[in-house]
Amino acid sequence: MSKVDYPRHAQITLALSGASGAPYALVLLERLLGSGLQVHLLVSSAARVVMAAEQNEQWPAKPEALATLLSERYQAKPEQLKVYGKEEWFSPVASGSGAPRRMVICPCSMGTIASIAMGISDNLIERAADVVIKEKGQLIVVPRESPYSALHLENMLKLANLGVTIMPASPGFYHQPKTINDLVNFMVARILDHLDLDHTLVSRWGYGH
């Protein structure tokens, strides 16, 4: 099978860290692949624990096995989904010359936010985020924590001042949600809006009411 080359504007990095919010990540991954983007997926060890706790899914630790599992589930095209281990420093996302210009960390733990805010790059998620910031790309982080401590707020403010979009997992209710999926779709829709990707997940304010 011939190699498929995706231009950088058709690529995105999606990272899952150890915060609660696995359903958001699954729907977002499905929508990104459905939009035709090539997804570079990064999953922390803590994120796999959360996935098991919240979705009863045991994700394999080996990147190749996880790529196969998710590609089959979401019917991804050849090479559309790339999965990397936490220390794959030679992956495209680790370098400004190869990383996608857009990245979403969903869900995003406060530990990950703190590391990014301090410029620490001890794993590939942190390094990929550092690359997007230094290359002046688009970084969206989706924290799920309550309450926020002053330290959390300081770290998020620092990132916001660097151009990072802070989008807490705080779904609205004006669309009159009936199910948990409705709440999940609301947040994923807001993320897709900021990525300038079309969707029909929820009605926009002022339309369909």
TrEMBL record:
State the source organism's domain of life. Bacteria
The residues the record assigns to binding FMN are G18, A19, S20, S44, S109, M110, G111, T112, R144
Instruction: Give its E.C. classification number.
Output: 2.5.1.129
The record's listing under InterPro entries reads: Flavin_trans-like (IPR036551), Flavoprotein (IPR003382), UbiX-like (IPR004507)
Asked if the Swiss-Prot or TrEMBL record annotates the protein with the keyword Flavoprotein, the reply is yes
Q: Which UniProt keywords apply?
A: Flavoprotein, FMN, Prenyltransferase, Transferase
Q: Which Pfam families match?
A: Flavoprotein
The record ties this protein, via SUPFAM superfamilies, to: Homo-oligomeric flavin-containing Cys decarboxylases, HFCD
Question: Record-annotated residues binding dimethylallyl phosphate?
Answer: Y174, R190
Whether Transit peptide counts among this entry's keywords is no
The catalytic activity, as recorded, is: dimethylallyl phosphate + FMNH2 = prenylated FMNH2 + phosphate
**Top class in the EC scheme:** transferase
Q: What GO MF terms are annotated?
A: flavin prenyltransferase activity
Which family, according to the similarity comment?
Belongs to the UbiX/PAD1 family.
Q: What does this protein do?
A: Flavin prenyltransferase that catalyzes the synthesis of the prenylated FMN cofactor (prenyl-FMN) for 4-hydroxy-3-polyprenylbenzoic acid decarboxylase UbiD. The prenyltransferase is metal-independent and links a dimethylallyl moiety from dimethylallyl monophosphate (DMAP) to the flavin N5 and C6 atoms of FMN.
Family matches, as PANTHER family: FLAVIN PRENYLTRANSFERASE, FLAVIN PRENYLTRANSFERASE PAD1, MITOCHONDRIAL
Name of the molecule in the record: Flavin prenyltransferase UbiX
Task: Give the originating organism.
Answer: Oceanisphaera ostreae
